[in-house]
């Protein structure tokens, strides 16, 4: 049954089953086996501290459970003017039914060895707009002048008001400006803005691009309840050219028909020519997707060569064959990045990469990590290839970046779970890479774990985030992820930072 699972992720978040055979797109680059050495990683450093919202009681809703001191869903960016300055963002004090007390930024001035943190003004708990007592979907990106751009989905625990808000920092993440509203929907439950991201233009100081999906449900006509599945969810876009002081009017750049939507929109920019690529999940409940009579979830993209003024029609890269993630022994739900593709671009060559969760490598039994790449600006894409080393267990929530020509991917998996263990859910975090000149991902590097996923907040499943952070730091990678503190009920999770050298 179609429904809206929680307020900050009001999407058609069901796992489609497929009866049609996959139609493969032309291969731009084949990814086949080769040998590579394992990377080295620093021990994980805790980037998050005690919640700054410990005394805040706002945002409560009937039946909702709050998890104090729990950090989830992190993102990370490195300052191009000073790579020792790294900014992290995450949800702080997660609610079981969506969002958190607020968003927090961690910032380091010594390359991630130590961290400070500050609340971002996106919710009432953090001194933001009083009407918004919850915030979600943290994101940060830093421009070539060192200006950091951060965005939030801000909304009400009880009530329908919601917005995409943006704030900036010019001091390395220590302080943030009062937020600007990129879009606000007030006094109606017909619209919900979701899964926003922001990308600073790598070449143009003061310019950044924000994208999100805007779910549109039926009107409040009393008869519309009988047509609750009549939704649509186009991609919206807004741009700043003055360092976040103002943003362009929100505009739909990927129109969708009834029973269609996008989610997980992210822009990457080719620094060689300024082309914008927006990668997302195209959810098709009805109608053709332009490749075949396929439906369900699809990895797709659209691009702009004029700074976001005009965009191509969506092109499907591959079907996204997620079956979701559950505890293999108990069947308990684990909420992951199952419908969120993650893109990256090689700034030197413009080669595009996208990773996502997919069950195609094991006959549709459980999710693993897939990748596709394009060397010709998205005109053609390689057949999906497997990233993780198979271990007969789910691998999930991948992140991808390119550092000095090396493609790095991080992900969780359940390989440490023993048959018959129903009291804990051991989870590990891994890194693997595709070396420059290589054709396949090499040996995995264990970043940390196992930790007990059952300790994580329960938000429609054990939850560390719909995405995790990964950034290039010269020839290295900086990983920001959430690790559960096994067995702790007063500090269930922390955001941890690790540097990886391929």
Automatic annotation (TrEMBL):
Give yes or no: UniProt keyword Ligase: no
The positions making up the signal sequence are: 1-38
BP GO annotations: ganglioside catabolic process; oligosaccharide catabolic process
- What UniProt keywords apply to this chain's record, in alphabetical order? Glycosidase, Hydrolase, Signal
Instruction: Report which superkingdom the organism of origin falls in.
Output: Bacteria
Q: What is this protein called?
A: exo-alpha-sialidase
Query: EC number(s) for this protein?
Result: 3.2.1.18
Reaction(s) catalysed (UniProt annotation): Hydrolysis of alpha-(2->3)-, alpha-(2->6)-, alpha-(2->8)- glycosidic linkages of terminal sialic acid residues in oligosaccharides, glycoproteins, glycolipids, colominic acid and synthetic substrates
Main enzyme class: hydrolase
Q: GO cellular component annotations, sorted alphabetically? A: cytoplasm; membrane
For this protein, the record's Gene3D superfamilies field holds: 2.120.10.10
Q: Which organism is it from?
A: Sinomonas puerhi
One molecular function GO term is: exo-alpha-sialidase activity
Recorded family membership: Belongs to the glycosyl hydrolase 33 family.
Which PANTHER family does the UniProt entry name for this protein? EXO-ALPHA-SIALIDASE, SIALIDASE
